[in-house]
């Protein structure tokens, strides 16, 4: 599986939880700190963590084990 990106920021407990969930699937994840880019910060500030799988984005409201499992198959 390619193209998995986790948008996160420092000291984000929800981001840590989603990272742990992704680790359960043994997939390669690119982690991007939204605070390193003003445009990303503006776009995702209230939505993180956000997982992008290929071209689909899941924000914190829709990320759980079963949703990730379905999209990572």
TrEMBL record:
Domain of life: Bacteria
Xref: PROSITE patterns: GLUTAREDOXIN_2
InterPro entries: Glutaredoxin-like (IPR008554), Glutaredoxin-like_YDR286C (IPR052565), Thioredoxin-like_sf (IPR036249)
Coiled coil region boundaries: none
UniProt-listed PANTHER family: GLUTAREDOXIN-LIKE PROTEIN C5ORF63 HOMOLOG
Protein name per UniProt: Glutaredoxin family protein
């Amino acid at each position: 599986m390619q193209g998995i990106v986790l948008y996160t920021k420092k000291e984000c407990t929800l981001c840590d939880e989603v990272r742990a969930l992704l680790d359960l699937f043994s997939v390669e994840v690119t982690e991007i700190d939204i605070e390193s880019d003003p445009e990303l910060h503006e776009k995702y500030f209230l939505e993180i963590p956000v997982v992008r799988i290929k071209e689909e984005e899941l924000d914190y409201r829709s990320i759980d084990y079963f949703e990730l499992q379905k999209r990572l198959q």
